[in-house]
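[step 3/7] fold_predict: job queued, chain A
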Amino acid sequence: MLELAILGLLKEQPMHGYQLSRELGDALGGFWRVSYGSLYPTLRRLEGDGAVQSVADGEARGRRKTTYEITEKGEKLFFELLQETPHDTTTEDTRFRVRLAFFRYLPPETRIRLLERRRATLEDRLSTIKGSLHTTRTRVDTYTLSLMEHGRSATESDIAWLEGLIAAERTDGSTRGGTKRREHRALRREEHTS
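[step 4/7] structure written:
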């Protein structure tokens, strides 16, 4: 999952490790924190696999800075990761959020397919939750029941949200946010180099 997020950001522009860490927090809305202890080993692994390459920037305040950029192999891996079906359902929620942050790189029909697949997963989850509520309502304590009801409510809300995204995608298939974000990043780069 971290690989997908790193490749998605490097697809937009080359970055230093610190920039990647900051942008990961910005791009993913603060719901997922990345430590340097996981970021740099992942960058080294991606570099070893040929998905990213590092370029030394020279000396910055006595330290050599390394910029990372995506390679052609990394571009292919990015699209594979963006469209894969995860096998571990415990991380599926976070994985979906990370993938959604980079949906602008996919064609509308692929976005719709992935949104519909996610909706089907949540509908299955909702069915399981409702079944559990029906059979265990009188046998569980207040907190467990409350947790199950919260899960039902959150899942119903997520399904409604996905239905809205699917409807909007079918209406115009636009990637409005992606262009504005790239323009904002370009302006920030110009400010830093001026």
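[step 5/7] annotate
The beta strands are 15-16, 52-60, 63-70.
The first helix runs from residue 2 to 12.
exit 0
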